[in-house]
Give the backbone structure.
Amino acid sequence: MSVLVYVENADGKFKKSTFEVVSYAAAIAELLKTELIAISIGNVNQDDLSNLGKYGAIKVLNVSTEKLKTFVNQAYASVIADAATKESATVVVLANSFTGKGLSPRIAVKLKAGLVDAAVELPKTDNNIFSVKKTAFSGKAFATVELKSAISIIALSPNSYQLKEGGLSAKVEDFKPEFKESDFRTMVSEIVRASDKIALPDAELVVSAGRGMKGPENWAMIEELAQVLGAATACSKPVSDAGWRPHEEHVGQTGIAVSPNLYIAIGISGAIQHLAGVSSSKTIVVINKDPEAPFFKVADYGIVGDAFEILPKLINAIKAYKAHS
């Protein structure tokens, strides 16, 4: 028996969410009194693979073949399921990222396993039944799901579990997976990454703005605030629909769901569709000149005022603080 964790990489580099999911899987392995094994697919530096031991993995299965150099949903799912079978894994853990959302149901079908996506807490066990807390209804509520199957698949929401270090280097082994040619019927021809920006799903800080900014020509102050905070930039749906900002910055029910430690909403009224994608944020700060804006009802902190007056003062205050700290 073991716990298997899939460690996702971007161009050969691990992100913070990878270490979160390894820490989470290590805690599950400790709960079950078993060992944690990681599986990596793609060309990753051997030292980075070995470093996963610091977060609790005792062994890393390294899959590095030209055929799997770029992400292929069905093939990756087959590889992970194959590794789970060969390592007698009763729990498979992965991040509830864009990639993980595609992989987790496929792995569950291959292993005839129960699945919980968007998990936010460690599972509880009672008579070999897992109870896992997860977000539901687009993040507006929580649900507890019981997994009664012999194998469980858990996809962890980003920024919902603390990194925990303390282990040693992990042993790295080459893993030769089994997959079918049918796994490659659908291929990704190209992946274009915005290398100069913080990815929204992984961001701990997000600065978001809406139609209250009046036009794309006023976005410089949003980008400057994000820059001084080290935050990702986002926007509401009407802003992306109007072409003021790219669609990959749209957060909400029909856009990207985020769960940062801090979400700053500027000039966004707070329609239910937008709130559905940001309600998992740990702290929400709202800046809006309309005191009746719905966003204030869910905000932890609110400032009623003109963003064009508030933002320059806020940016200068942050710069001054950072200069003296």
The mean pLDDT is 91. The chain is about 25% helix and 25% strand. The chain has two domains: 2-184, 200-324. The longest helix spans residues 307-324.
